[in-house]
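User: Small ask, check this?
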Amino acid sequence: MDQFAGRRNIIVIMILVVAFFLIVRLFYVQVIDSTYKLSAENNSRRIETIYAARGLIYDRNGELLVYNQPAYDLMIAPFELKSFDSTALCELLNIDLMRLRSGIARVKIPRYRREPFIKQLSPETYARLQEKLYKFPGFYVRSRTLRKYTREMASHLLGYVGEVDEKTIESNPYYIMGDYIGISGIEGYYEKFLRGEKGQEVLLVDVHGRVKGPYQGGRFDKDARVGMSFYCTIDSKLQAYCEKLMKNYKGSIVAIEPSTGEILSLVSSPSYDPSLLVGRQRSVNYARLEQDSLEPLFNRALMANYPPGSTFKPVHALIALEEKLINTGTTFSCNRGFYARGVSVGCHEHESPLSLLAGIQNSCNAYFCNVFRRIIEDPKFQSTTEAYNNWRSYVLSFGFGNKLNSDFTNELKGFVAPASYYDRYYGENGWNALTVISLAIGQGELLFTPLQMSNLTACLANRGYYFIPHVVKKIEGVETIDKRFTSRHVVNIDTANFNIVAEGMYLAVNGGKGSTAGIARLNNIAVCGKTGTAENPHGEDHSVFIAFAPRENPEIAISVYVEHGKWGASYAAPIASLVIEKYLTDTVAPNRRWIENRMLNGNLLHAK
């Protein structure tokens, strides 16, 4: 027996094991691992992303609102960096050497990833740099487009575009670092239509990174697809006029076409120039706007929760009529307010007693406290909670207490307290109509957005139904808009009852003595409206007004909130009437120019 046989076998096994691992490693490197392949390919080719121009945005009449302008990013590819004249590059870019060095050192990224070095070069800087770019290996220019606006308006409605963040990249593989995305408004909600589709150009480069031409004759190139043109529902002339009226006030205007739910104008004031959030100064401007005490970035039309005040009284009239708790002949007395069992709600001086129509016309608090009390104390229900839930179901059917599901990303739902809310404070069966009597006049726990109030007005105009408010009218290449915007939402209240309330709202504007909204009366146009005062615990009350016109076949429904405006007739009603008149007649009658001048020259921006 060979005394070395055991050792020889061990050596053979070791050689076989090493050979096996070498073969596995070679297979992994050549077949599975693409690192060396990528290294070789990146030495011979460069993949350039071609960014699509975003879709244009037009108003309902085809007027261009948003278009594109060229912009250029200076990109850096760390794996292609070689020695270059740093002083010459700094002179071209108008930066100092320290910024150049810190910028290069800051690029801590995977080896084959290219990143922006300086974004949005000016056309002049780009022109100087382009002809000398070959002297700076590792740097190249990528073209893209930025948004440009034809008017300084509709910033909250249009929204803005910004860079994607890591969270977006993780959730959507379409985007990579450096891409832009719609963040708010139309730009955000309709991003997938507006963004288009990115393309790519694969270029053949030499060992110095210089472009020699298309890779394989452009076989792997892909054209970018321009974003779809978007036609929104707003009337740009009306939008501009609304913003002009509100320039010296905090608040909002929301105008809707009742027959379609299309938003004719959406204003949140104070506002800002949308071009401030475009270009290299975007982050600086955003920080400045965010710190502004007037909160111009805050979209009051969608995100401010206000009590509706007396503008909510028509809803109580409708519920009580439907439940047959009152009729047009039902009268209640008012002695400067409502008084019952130690509970009191004040009211202004007017004739008494009043019928339903006169109650709406005079906006009598006592009348609607009695109406609300009948609703909550309806004997057909076993308890206050059951009657309250019935009342609440009616209120929710108008679109309150929930998001309307419009095409805005930051819409709030408002608040209509469930019965359990009062149970927590007063105990189960420990509260009644008088406990929550402030709800009768649109105060207490009721909180609605201006968009919801405008939607209520559209429902009143349509005599019992509404379409979800929306801002999309047409998208290029898309046959129809979302079906939810063309579906009726019907309130379970008889049309005849809506006609009664419409008559009361007509009298509130056109009824003469006792009419709280006479300031909104127009020549030859039957306006139906309702004033309101929304209590403000932090200062002067807010001025509120809702209206639709004409009375028959209404073409516009509107809500106006003016913060710290006190009475509905002081600011909100005059502004709403001017908007209605401008939209329906394209002018303001000479005998009403004084109202327009008073609104334009007023100023409550710093009121408390």
Remarks:
- The two ends are 108 Å apart (CA to CA).
- The first strand starts at residue 45 and ends at 50.
- The domain at 236-273+298-601 is CATH 3.40.710.10 (Beta-lactamase).
